[in-house]
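Example: ABD12 lipase.
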Amino acid sequence: HPTESGFTTDVLALYDWAKARSGNSTILFWGHSLGTGIATNTARKLQEERGVQVDAVVLESPYTNIREAAAHIPITTIYRQFPGFGYFILDSLALGDMYFASDENVKVLACPLLILHAEDDAVLPPHLGRKLFETARNAYKDKTKVKFITFPEKLGLGHDYISFNPELPVLVK
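Written out as structure tokens, the predicted fold is:
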């Protein structure tokens, strides 16, 4: 079954494979939703264990950590009112070694970091992306390496369609 460390190990193997075949091409990690935690985990592990900095990290519809994300996703709305929600639902993630602590990971990253979030994201609220941005911005020595771009509600990009925005390639570049 999938695990946080398994995902991270898989992305490291993919990075090694791509790096061996890409010459001097830029390699960045792009994570969406749950994948944002995997992207920051892998970038941090690469930096701390190998002394290698990925060229950039792009986080699309991110969250701070899996516990906080689970507390805000719509499916948990009905359960939040019950006693024990924190223990039985949120703490059970930690018991399964599921943290996806992007908020901790960005504190040690030094590579360029771009956070993208749609204002009409109904799955992961934009305030989680903003909070992650503030955490990174406070930790980074070079503040110019941390960017946060929001997409207005009128675009209707929600949680899944930021990649459909025709301006995205220019924004990322």
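The domain at 4-172 is CATH 3.40.50.1820 (Rossmann fold).
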